[in-house]
Amino acid sequence: MLQQIVIPSLSEIYAAAAEFLRRLGDRRLVAFHAAMGAGKTTFTTAVCRALGVSADAVSSPTFAIVNEYRTASGEPVYHFDFYRITKLEEALDIGLYDYLDSGALCLMEWPENIAELLPEETLVVDITVGPDGSRTLSWQED
Questions:
Q1: pTM given for the model
Q2: pLDDT for 14-54, tens place per residue?
Q3: Which of 33, 46, 127, 129 could staple 17 via S-S, CB 3.0–4.6 A?
Q4: What is the rounded distance in angstroms from the CA atom of residue 27 to the CA atom of residue 29?
Q5: What backbone torsions phi and psi does residue 43 show, to the nearest 5 degrees?
Q6: 127: phi > 0 → left, psi -120 to 50 → alpha, else beta; which?
């Protein structure tokens, strides 16, 4: 069944992030597919804030590939940006499977660059931009 969350404007992104976390349940691996500038990092930041990660801790891991944050309860959250990955070995070299197998929430941008490495249980979320500037998150539920 198709699931969707519409974010009419940036002012509603935190409510959308809280709703996304509620619907996420116990899934830990999330792959965000979207065009450049569609809001992957902005939404990931909102999700982290909803988990109690301090605002100044969240940034795009474009050059580092992965950033680790701590939620209000001390749990790790891993934020990946695979934009600059050109070979699968680069993802393996950072210990990708150690992160994915950790049980921590893993939020991934540009996952298409490592699609062959992602476990089957990864939740694939598409972010699209509407003509009015709204964003729609959509994914398939089993």
A1: 0.94
A2: 999 999 999 999 999 999 999 999 999 999 999 999 999 98
A3: 46
A4: 6
A5: -70, -40
A6: beta
